[in-house]
Amino acid sequence: MPRTTHDGNGGGMTIARRIAAGRRAMPAAMSKIADVVSESPAAPVELTITELAERAGTSPATVTRFCRALGFDGYTQFRVGVASEIGRGGADQSWQADIGQEFGAEDEAGKVLQTLVALHVENLETTADHLDLDNVLRVADAIAASRHVDIYGVGGSGVIAREFQARMYRIGINAHSWSDVHEGLTSAVMQDESSVAIGISSTGRTEETVQMLSQARASGAFTVAITHDTDSWLAGLADVSLATAEPTPYLRPDDLSVKHSQLLVLDLLYLLVAQQTFGVATTHLAASAMAVSGHRRVAKTPRTPAPQEENR
After folding, report:
1. What is the per-residue pLDDT across 47-57, written as a single tens digit (0 to 9) for each?
2. pLDDT at 191
3. What is the mean pLDDT of residues 76-98?
4. In a domain, 216, yes or no
5. Average pLDDT over all residues of the chain
6. Four-point Cα dihedral 32, 33, 38, 43, nearest 10
7. What's the CATH number where 83 sits?
8. Of 82 and 107, which is predicted with more confidence?
9. Could you tell me if 248 and 148 lie in one domain?
């Protein structure tokens, strides 16, 4: 890679020239990012780090390494450099790309709150309207009868995967979540017809998640995709695909609304599985509540006002 400085100057070289000069030394995952940026120079200005990673079929961490290899401290500095070179470095354009078209820099807090509530509620309602409840019940049945559940997700979807794993585990389901592709593949290869594997990716194109779910399918597991794109690579691997609302172009970072849609689907699955395993679920919930009860402080007793002295 060419020698560059941490402020992104790169010895006066343009970003395109820096990418071209370092292509041969780039690992395959970083080369995918270079391909996206070369084909769509404005992509870093228009996309969040997660979106760029998903478009390139890689991870946000790899995007950060790509930026540092070009001499930038991180993705924010890289985007500023790209915006400056293509003449889109104005504050208004940057605000719309990073924050959203529905919000103004001078909006009052109350307006921002109401706009957020409306957008998030719309996403939840859209997800609910498009959910196939027969498919949801099919997945819940499979989880309740399984010996093992694998849940795959990277980045923001990885956070959701871990949340779902914790809920499943607490009601007695042998569930495990994986964000690292090596660890996930190691688990996936050990699954069989008595297992359920769930892949979570908003776009359905996250390479690591696709790989893990693909391996679980090859091992015989019942596979589930949770994505807004039912025609995506991830959905194509799944026995059942559960659709979430597509991110709105007016809300940034749009993965916030995506997370809420994903959580709605997973909350529904959690409750349906708990219903089907009622005896086991309630026993485990009571036991886990007892186990952590000693770590919770007693609620404060409301203070009783001192009685006033009688008038004499």
Report:
1. 889 889 999 99
2. 97
3. 69
4. yes
5. 86
6. 140
7. 1.10.10.10
8. 82
9. yes
User: Where is the domain boundary, 65, 98, 131?
Assistant: 98
Structurally, how many domains does the chain consist of?
2
Task: Give yes or no: residues 145 and 237 share one domain.
Answer: yes
Residue 14 lies in a domain: yes
88 and 163, same structural domain? no
Residues 277 and 152 in one domain: yes
pLDDT of 266: 96
What pLDDT does 171 receive?
96
Q: Are residues 265 and 122 in the same domain?
A: yes
pLDDT tens digits, one per residue of 142-183 = 999 999 999 999 988 999 999 999 999 999 999 999 999 999
Residue 241 counted as domain residue: yes
Highest mean pLDDT among 12-16, 171-175, 254-258: 171-175
DSSP assignment string, the chain: -----TBS-GGG--HHHHHHHHGGGS-HHHHHHHHHHHH-TTHHHHS-HHHHHHHHTS-HHHHHHHHHHTTBSSHHHHHHHHHHHTT---HHHHHHHHT-TT--TT--HHHHHHHHHHHHHHHHHHHHHH--HHHHHHHHHHHHH-SEEEEE--THHHHHHHHHHHHHHHTT--EEEE-SHHHHHHHHTT--TTEEEEEE-SSS--HHHHHHHHHHHHTT-EEEEEES-TTSHHHHH-SEEEE-PPPPTTSSSTHHHHHHHHHHHHHHHHHHHHHHTHHHHHHHHHHHHHHHGGGSPPPPPPPPPPPPPPP-
The whole domain housing 195 covers 111-288
